[in-house]
Structure formats: structure tokens, C-alpha cells
Amino acid sequence: MASATRSSSLSGRSSARVPAGQGSRFDRRLAKILEHATEVFCEKGYEGASMRDLSRASRMSLAGLYYYFDSKEKLLYLIQKYTFTTILERLRERLGGVHDPEQRVRIFIQNHLEYFLANQKAVKVLSHEDDVLKNGYGAEIAAIKREYYRICLELVDELKRAQGLEFSSRIAVLSLFGMMNWIYTWHNARVDADAGELAREMGDIFLHGVCRGGAGPQAKRVRVM
Amino acid sequence: MASATRSSSLSGRSSARVPAGQGSRFDRRLAKILEHATEVFCEKGYEGASMRDLSRASRMSLAGLYYYFDSKEKLLYLIQKYTFTTILERLRERLGGVHDPEQRVRIFIQNHLEYFLANQKAVKVLSHEDDVLKNGYGAEIAAIKREYYRICLELVDELKRAQGLEFSSRIAVLSLFGMMNWIYTWHNARVDADAGELAREMGDIFLHGVCRGGAGPQAKRVRVM
DNA sequence: TATCATGTAGAACGAACGTTCGATAAGCCC
DNA sequence: GGGCTTATCGAACGTTCGTTCTACATGATA
Question: Which residues between 136 and 165 in chain A have a beta carbon less than 8 angstroms from any beta carbon of chain B?
Fold first, then answer.
């Protein structure tokens, strides 16, 4: 018996926060398993990773794992839910008190990239195993994602209103998400800049485009044709 | 015996072109199987799709499939190679004769999006099953991809030179790829614009940013802070 | 010391996996 | 008509899959 539907702060019914250092013994153990599972899912993909891989990574028997959650799918759900909830929570904190629309968009980018680079494996699992979850689990994750998208859309709309601009918010926002999310396919900590620098550069591209001079000082445009 | 190492234009040793209407009977049959497999891989992912799924989709027995290729992995390789080769080929044709740097970047975007939307399932398999292929197969696909990236990098460098701009080409190009590739996660033929329109809007964002007015007429900027 | 919830593991379950085998038609050349 | 090649199939191979059953420790409580 037991497993993740028990009354636990990470899993079942309650709040779903676990910074991996608090909570009951059960919660701490489960959080560790989630960390290992994230790594394995990241490397082999959800379908490609077997429960035996997870058991090896967690240094626990196959059967022992099932004490902490009741299926492989639920494990993925727990990872995705925790990751997404955390991003959203931090974003809300950071946006509080800032009112300049351009600054608010930049904060969104900064928050997104910072979390993405600090938790690269988790967000790869989030991005890559996007439509694996079925029914209830899938719907719940999709709802959180929709909310996150909605916030970004609102920020862009604020910007449009404030600056009297006219363009498709949907395409702009989805393009921005593309820029940011794609990072998990190419970012290399040894050669690429950190989150702050990347956020600035991507913010420049999104807001002003490469032709306006991106990272460098304002450049004069020399039209060719 | 036989299977895809035979002397065939799609598979083994030779040129790897098959517009699915030419070639030997063997090639035409294999091309059909590849189409079905693309659809199944797209829906269930490479690992998630079983050979039995493919056999059902192709309306051919499990054993019958193996007459045309020698492993599931090779099948994925054939799909990816054909798709990528085609994009690259079309790009080269279109760039010929155009010399304005901005126009050349726009052609790149247009070509990419056009193919992506016309072959959404194939490119999803391309993007999503990026690091599944091992050793020889993986290396070959990676090489084609590198070449494609190199071309885009060159286009952006041309633009920088022509307009006297200063920014990180690497980040700009990878951001652009992100914008464009992410499309497979959200594009909906019933509500979203076609490739031409999308290419224009993404080109505007990449080149001039949303603050310069994206799709609409040049907008005046109203600074708030 | 007996009892009880908490953890953990070995061994096995049936199902599904990718792949191979041997047989069997149908069409072609001699 | 006999001997190739091409194309297809049912059945099975050995392996691995996610999951479950049962037993056995451990430490706290009574």
C-alpha cells in the first residue's frame, strides 16, 4: 500500500511543493527519486527509459520504487507538475511591483531562461514529453501551461497598448516561446553565456530585432536595395 | 535477402531522392512505407511506435516490412535523411540569384516554414527524434544539420557586414531556429496563417522586433519610462 | 516482548517488444 | 515445365517491458 496518493506534500492531494530538503522522510525520498528519474527521462526519453533504468539510477529495487508512486505515468506527471508550478510561482513574484511593459516582458524572458538553464534536464522532459500524459494528468498539466501562455500574452498586449503597436500577439508570443524553449537543444554551459546575458540578447531580438543592433551599441542602418 | 541496402535510389548506396512517384517498384513501395511510418512516428514518437503499429499502418505483415529495410532505426534514418536533404536542396535553388542580405534571410525563413508546414509530420519526427539515431546514422544526419546551420549563420553574417551591425550571430541564428522549429508544437491549419504570412511576420520580428511595428505599418514608439 | 506501520527486495506475471525463420505464391527467363 | 527472383506471410524467437505478490527486515509504540 501507500504510494503517491497518500497524504504527502509532494504527491497526492496537497500542495505539491518540495524543495527536496524539507517534508517527511517519504517526501524527501520521493523527491530524490524524482531527481534521478528526471535525469534518466532527459537522457533516454520517457518511452525509452525503463523502470529498470530508474531503479538503477535511484539505487533501489524495481519493486521498491512502486512504494513511492503508482505508475510510470504518474512519475512523469509529478515531475512536470512540480517544474511548471515552480516557474509560474517565481514569475508571479518577480512581476509584482514592476509596471513598465517592456521591463515586464524582459522579466518574463529572464525568469524563463534562468529556470531553464538551472533546471535544463527537467525542462527538457517538460518540453520533449509534452503530449505523453493522458486524460486527467495531461489535462492538468495543459491547464498550467495555458495559464503560463496567457500571462505572456497579456504582457505583450500591454506592450502593444502602451506603445501603440500593431501585430499578431499570438504569433509574437509563440515565436518568443520558440526562441526560449529551443535553448534546451543547443545550450552548452562551457561556451554559451549565462541566463542573464541570454535573456538580454533574446529580449533585444524580440523587442527590436537584429537590424537595430541587438547586443552592441545602436547601429546605423545601411540600406542596400 | 534484399532490404534497404540493396541498390535502390531511395535507400542504400545511391542518391537518396524519391518523390514517391518515380523509381522502381521497390522504391515506390518503400516510399509509401516511409510515409506511413512518418505519420506513426509523429503520433506516438519513435520509441512509442512499435513495428506492429507500422505494419498496421502500412497494411503489410510485420515480416513483410523487413523486406524493405533492415531495422527500425534505419527506417528513422531514411525519413530524416530524405526530409533534410530536400529542405537543403530547395533552399539552395531559391537563394541562387538573390543578393540582398535581408532578402536572403527572408528567403531562408520562407523556405524553412513552407517546408515545415507542408510536411509537418515529417519535420516533427525530425525535430523530436533528434538524438535517437546512434553512431553512423546519427553522425550523417548531424552533418547535414550542421551544414544547414552553417548556411544560415553565413546569411546572418552577410547581413551584419552589410549593415554594420554587431551582435552574436550564434545566438541570433539559434533563436531564429527556435522560433521556426517550435511551430510544430502549435500551428493549427484552421486558425493560423499560411507559410508566406508567417514567414513575413517572423522575419519582421527577427529583423526589426515587435517594437518596430511587426506586421502593421511603421508605428511610432511611445516611451513610458 | 509482542504489535504495528514503514520500507525494501526477489521473483515472478502476462504482455509487448524488435527481429528472424521457413514457407509460399506470382512473374519472368530458358 | 523447371529454375530463378521478387514479394509476402504466419509463427515463433529470446528479450524486455510495467507491474504485482509475498516475504522480510526495521524501528517505534504498547
Answer: 156, 159-160, 162-165
List CB contacts of A147: < 8 A, sequence separation 6 or more.
A88
B14 touches strand C (CB under 7 A): no
Cβ atoms of residues A34 and A40 within 8 Å: no
Q: For the segment A17-39, what is each residue's pLDDT rounded down to a tens digit?
A: 444 556 778 889 899 999 999 99
Other C-beta atoms closer than 10 Å to the C-beta of A218 total: 7
Q: How far is the CA of A64 from the C1' of D28 (A)?
A: 22
CB atoms within 10 A of CB A165: 23
**Does B207 sit within 8 Å of A165, measured CB to CB?**
no
Report helix, strand or coil for A127. helix
Could you give the dihedral angle defined by the CA atoms of residues B63, B67, B69 and B71, in that order, rounded to the nearest 10 degrees? 30
Q: Cβ distance A130 to B182 under 8 Å? A: no
Q: Which of B98, B179, B186 to mutate to test the interface with A (most CBs of A within 10 A)?
A: B179
Quote the Cα angle for B183-B185-B188, to 5°: 75
How many angstroms separate the CA atoms of A139 and A146, rounded? Answer: 10
| First vs last C-alpha separation in chain B | 73
Each residue's pLDDT tens digit, A174-197: 999 999 999 999 999 999 999 999
- B52 to chain A, closest Cα gap in Å: 16
pTM, whole model, 2 decimals? 0.87
DSSP state of B66: T
| Count of CB atoms situated within 10 Å of the CB of A92 | 11
Q: Is strand C less than 7 A from the beta carbon of A5?
A: no
All cell numbers assigned to A17 = 511543493
Question: Where do we find the cell 499560411?
Answer: B194
| Residues B5-44 pLDDT 10s | 544 444 442 223 444 556 788 999 999 999 999 999 999 9
Nearest in space to A48 (alpha carbons), one of A77, A65, A72: A72
Question: In the numeric block, which cell numbers belong to residue A7?
Answer: 497524504
